[in-house]
Amino acid sequence: MSTAPEVTERAEQPYVAVKVQVTMQTISAIADRFPEVFGWLGARGIASAGAPFLKYDAIDMARELEIEAGVPVAAPAGGDGDVFSGVLPAGRYATLTHVGHPSGLYDATVRLLEWASEQGLAFDMSERDGTGQWACRLEIYLTDPGQEPDMDKWETQLAFKLAD
Fold this sequence. Notes:
By secondary structure, the protein is mainly β. Helix content is 15%, strand content 39%.
């Protein structure tokens, strides 16, 4: 089940993350990197300022996907090792919230993309060498698995930046 797609405004948001290149067959490995980000924050006494997310930067379904496992923070936090700091861009985003098992996120993404096309909305993205380069394409994990073990009740927001 998903909420109705809509256009929302998002403010600029600092974050810390690790970047991973995966294939569709190895995409689940990205979740293994979240503890590294949370550990980095904890070691520095920095609290998260929101829900963790995956930020899809480059998508080539046949080859590799470049994904960041990130956590919002209140202010830029620097970085070291594999952890780096960035800023999610402000602007208009096409969004919807999926409630249910994460396996339904593909269908929710298709629905959001189709809705945006029907509305005549263009995404802030480009193509380079057959790879989609996104300004900001997010899966935001609103449910803490430690608090809600039933994956059929998880809430995940999709937020894809629109062209200005």
